[in-house]
């Protein structure tokens, strides 16, 4: 037995409170090492009453098997002691507890759970599990209303300065299109008064930028989207502001005497537009950082969060550069938001492992760039084989509890990346296969505006072109609709188990299953046709090159 690979800790995420009387236990072991794993638990007051729960392998990578079980205690969990019976392929059996491994079971040195409180329970809005997002860069999606204004041509090459005139009214005018596509939640890049066309340099968080419309327009958009079964979340940029944000302008004017000195991280006075004078995001002088440890800043951001939730009925927030935010501030904001809006989602932006940002006292889910990175390497670039791709995806799924995995924002592209079709070298079949995989994988798939129409573009600003309403790839658009429809037809795809049936060379076979509802997908990224035998198929299944074969049951 490879005891060095066995790992369990008596707190989240290895001990995850599903409810006050239900716990999901997790134990990691070397891949293929253990044949059985059993949880043995008892109450501190009644050690003679032992309870046994078998664990099963939830998911495996090349190096690790993740064993889990869900134990129901019949009352609020308190003063529980426990350990594990482990058996390997040779028949060797050991007892594992907080102090190590033993030949005999012992109560000494046991793992222990003292109490499970309400705030320990992982609560994620149920609507986010499997939700289909659609990201809109407001200036580039659609012009609405009278269309007046001094704008660049809609098909102009995107730059970091040009304005195309997209607005909230334009989104309202295209809600039928979005409903027909099948999306379930709109994520809007910043719409508050700010500098630059991207609006990540906020000037006033309580005012919609006039180039996008008014508060009334946002309320109308939310109301009409809800009537179509579509939710709306906004971009919350609270790590930094623009240089024309009133408190920062006061700091520049009054220096060390400014009452807003503590709102920022000044390094020297007088304060000039220079990163040497203050901390700023990405060392970019036009975006000074807010000090999230400052209680006035926390209170201010809290008011912003609740103002738009209360006034316009939005369904949550995406928090920009969440991994740079003050962790204690995030916890406070979560508590305040969830107190009055328990179904509001708090979505984190991060480009790596999001584990430290998520959990009972953190954010609900995160943008899953780890997903995008792996999908790019396998489907777009062909730089790794199916076995390595499968291992990367399984290793990613191991990072988070099931509820979080089903809510992760799984994207192919965003306003901060090159368009996926550009990454594919313009080969549409690669994007088609990636779309299919995205819609069949656990999580919340996210479409970046225009990807479904075949838009291309290098990284920012190239990826931010005007929506290709008049230059669409209609076949790709229909394919995206069909993949979304497939996801909606099968509960197994939204909430079922995920298994990899085969992964070798250019071929990967995955299955989503929930009871009798089952979807199997066979992907072939290679240049030659493949034939596979599936146990449930009466005949071998043939897959053409550069194609996906989907089998639905029932």
Description:
This protein is an alpha/beta fold and 554 residues long. It has four domains: 118 residues, Immunoglobulin-like; 313 residues, TIM Barrel (Alpha-Beta Barrel), CATH 3.20.20; 50 residues, Oligo-1,6-glucosidase, Domain 2 (Oligo-1,6-glucosidase, domain 2); 57 residues, Immunoglobulin-like. Helices cover 24% and strands 27% of the residues. It has 13 helices and 26 strands. The strands form six sheets. The chain has an eight-stranded parallel β-sheet. Helix 5 runs parallel beside helix 6, helix 7 packs antiparallel against helix 8 and helix 7 crosses helix 11. The longest helix has 18 residues.
Compose a concise summary of this entry.
The chain has about 550 residues and is an alpha/beta fold. Helices cover about 25% and strands about 25% of the residues.
Task: Tell me the Rg in angstroms.
Answer: 26 Å
Backbone structural class: alpha/beta
For the biggest sheet, the summary is: 8 strands, parallel
For this structure, the CATH topology of the largest domain is: TIM Barrel
CATH top level of the largest domain is: Alpha Beta
How many distinct domains? 4
CATH architecture of the largest domain: Alpha-Beta Barrel
Q: In percent, how much strand structure appears in the residues?
A: 25-35%
What is the helical fraction, as a range of percent? 10-25%
Head-to-tail CA distance between termini: 42 Å
Count of helical segments? 13
CATH superfamily descriptor of the largest domain: Glycosidases
- Total E-strand runs: 26
Uncertain stretches of 5 or more adjacent residues: none
Overall 3D shape: globular
Strand order of the largest sheet: 18-17-16-15-12-11-20-19
